[in-house]
TrEMBL record:
GO molecular function: oxidoreductase activity, acting on CH-OH group of donors
Top-level taxonomic group: Bacteria
Keywords from the UniProt entry: Oxidoreductase
The protein's name in its UniProt record: Oxidoreductase
Length: 247
């Protein structure tokens, strides 16, 4: 496919899991792709090499998504390197759980989660908007727990993803005049290193889906590729659940 030929994309958190799958799919569809990573340079280098093997330009940038200055610097560096930016995918995130009535909760970790999952996304978008091409794309990776929280202890994480969905709807209004679409993809249970389909708890979660299985990172990447491409020109402010029919 070449739907994205000539486009430039940035995928935050693109060195592993869902982010890596998205970066490789966008490249397969024709885009030049930059990725950011926090602590896995070897994995980032592998993703860059795979993108380059497809004949696309690629590079990686180390950036702490919880540090506003580093996030803003990342956006500017990608724009300077490629000379433009067409697609921003906010994939970097952390997953911290704990019940609200835990008197010994590590509040610093929850603050860090908000800094990465909310502030990092907001900073990336605010920095990218003046640089983003008219008709560009902003796609964030949320979570179905923003709408339904089936297990205890998910409150803080769910709130960060709900915030991203709310921002998405508002930003779509803000940027519509420039034909920039803003959407959020909300995965259900996806087979990644952090949430493997082989874990002891996985069968319970899989049974909660209509399809009876975990999804694969490539299935989230396919949804992102659709939203990034020309067939999604009239899709903005949308929340797309890719969850196998999660109950």
């Amino acid at each position: 496919m070449s739907d994205l030929l000539g486009k430039v994309a940035l995928v935050t958190g693109g060195s592993r899991g869902i982010g890596a799958a998205i970066a490789k799919r966008l490249a397969a569809d024709g885009a030049d792709v930059a990725i950011s990573y926090a602590s896995s340079p070897a994995k980032a280098a592998t993703v860059v090499a795979e993108i380059e093997s497809l004949g696309r330009r690629a590079f990686s940038v180390r950036a702490d998504q919880g540090h506003r200055g580093q996030v803003a610097g990342l956006i500017r560096q990608v724009h300077e390197y490629f000379g433009k930016l067409d697609i921003l995918v906010n994939s970097a995130a952390v997953f911290i759980t704990g019940p609200v009535d835990d008197a010994n909760a590590d509040l610093a970790s929850f603050d860090r989660q908000q800094a990465i999952n909310i502030d990092g996304v907001v900073t990336a978008v605010r920095t990218a908007v003046p640089l983003l091409s008219d008709g560009g794309r902003i796609i964030s990776i949320g979570s179905t727990v923003a709408e339904s929280t089936p297990f205890p202890g998910f409150g803080d994480y769910a709130a960060t993803k709900a915030a991203v969905a709310a921002y998405t709807r508002a930003w779509a209004r803000d940027l519509g005049a420039r034909r920039i679409t803003v959407n959020v993809v909300q995965p259900g249970p996806i087979n990644t290193d952090a949430n493997p389909e082989t874990s002891d708890f996985a069968p319970v979660v899989a049974k909660m889906t209509a399809l009876g299985r975990y999804g694969q990172p490539e299935e989230i990447a396919a949804a992102v590729a659709f939203l990034a491409g020309p067939d999604a020109n009239y899709v903005s402010g949308a929340t797309l659940n890719v969850d196998g029919g999660l109950a």
